[in-house]
Amino acid sequence: MQGKIAIEEHFAIPETNGVKNRVASAYWDGLNAKLLDFDNQRIEEMDKGGVGFAIISLNAPAVQGFNDPREAIEVARRANDALAEQVRRRPDRYAGFAALPLQDPDAAAREFQRCVRDLGFKGALVNGYSNAPDGKTGLYYDAPMYRPFWAEVEKLDVPFYLHPRDPVSLERYAGVPWLVGSAWSFAEETALHALRLLTGGLFDEHPKLKLILGHLGERIPFDLWRLDHRLKYRHDCPAKRKVSDYFRENVWVTTSGNFSTQALMECMLQIGSDRILFSVDYPYEETQPGTDWFDAAEISEADRVKIGRGNAERLFNLPR
After folding, report:
1. Residue 269: what are its φ and ψ, rounded to 5°?
2. Active site includes 281?
3. Cα–Cα distances in angstroms (integers) from residue 21 to residues 4, 28, 175, in the given order
4. Is residue 101 included in any domain, yes or no?
């Protein structure tokens, strides 16, 4: 399929670059260079895979990994300005997601306003919780101090993409380091953060919020029935509705880094094809395997067009 739109595709600036290898392997070779590149291999891989357009976002954990709020604010602004320049150079191929310094909710709201209203960005991608000043705890966005921020997100009427990072503590992964990162801990951490937002009353207070989760929903779609079933007995849960209600009305999921036809079809059954968006997760995933899989997946052509392009066009108000 030509003209696909990919929305979880990453870049870096020098202040956020420098991948730390957990395992020495060929996988990491050239990854840093790919994160800094906009004109060469990135475009070549998009062209080969039939990706016509990409919404680009800062790598992880990047801004969220700074302990000092002032440093986070400065780096976020530099990253957003750098991305805006690339989008201005290639508006036919790129749009941008804002990086936000959520160590300071008021500063994050102001930067989000600037990115949407002045830079024309299509939303924000935030790499999980933000570091607290002590560097030992995380700031989660269901906390009361973030309610004014979410009110501004709702006013801006653009999506907020919650992207993974490792849990604050990795103690329970002692002895199993291979489960740290994208194999398991990323999804565990992000799913819990998303469920904190979905069950904490946030979407009752701000019903027009738009949340995006990668990797086919960080495993939440496959547990929606059980979440609904067990939470109906928890009278201490602030949410007024079922998790599945919010998920089917306020959440979109992407195919980033999860090229499984069975998982895709399960998501389609659980939440519908209108709420799924094609993505690769470049450069952490190579473009060609993701595009080859999607183009051959055993789904209808109508669903392939919706997931591959149409849903993104509607959600982000992109030219058709």
Report:
1. -70, -35
2. yes
3. 31, 7, 18
4. yes
DSSP the chain: --SEEEEEEEE--TTT--PPPSS-SGGGTTHHHHHH-SSSHHHHHHHHHTEEEEEEEE-SSGGGG-SSHHHHHHHHHHHHHHHHHHHHH-TTTEEE-B---TTSHHHHHHHHHHHHHTS----EEE-SSEEPTTSSSEE-TTSGGGHHHHHHHHHHT--EEE-----S--GGGTT-GGGTTTTTHHHHHHHHHHHHHHHTTHHHHSTT--EEESTTTTTGGGGHHHHHHHHTT-TT---SS-HHHHHHHHEEEE-TT---HHHHHHHHHHH-GGGEE----TTTS-HHHHHHHHHHSSS-HHHHHIIIIIHHHHHTT---
269 within a domain of the structure (yes/no): yes
Rg (CA), the chain: 19
Which one of the listed residues 281, 292, 295, 303 is annotated catalytic?
281
Q: Residue 92's domain is classified under what CATH number?
A: 3.20.20.140
Do the domain assignments include residue 207? yes
pLDDT per residue as tens digits for the range 112-158: 999 999 999 999 999 999 999 999 999 999 999 999 999 999 999 99
pLDDT digits (tens, 9 = 90+) for 203-218: 999 999 999 999 999 9
Q: What is the pLDDT of residue 308?
A: 98
Total structural domains within the chain = 1
In a domain, 320, yes or no: no
Which structural domain, as residue segments, surrounds residue 279?
Answer: 4-315
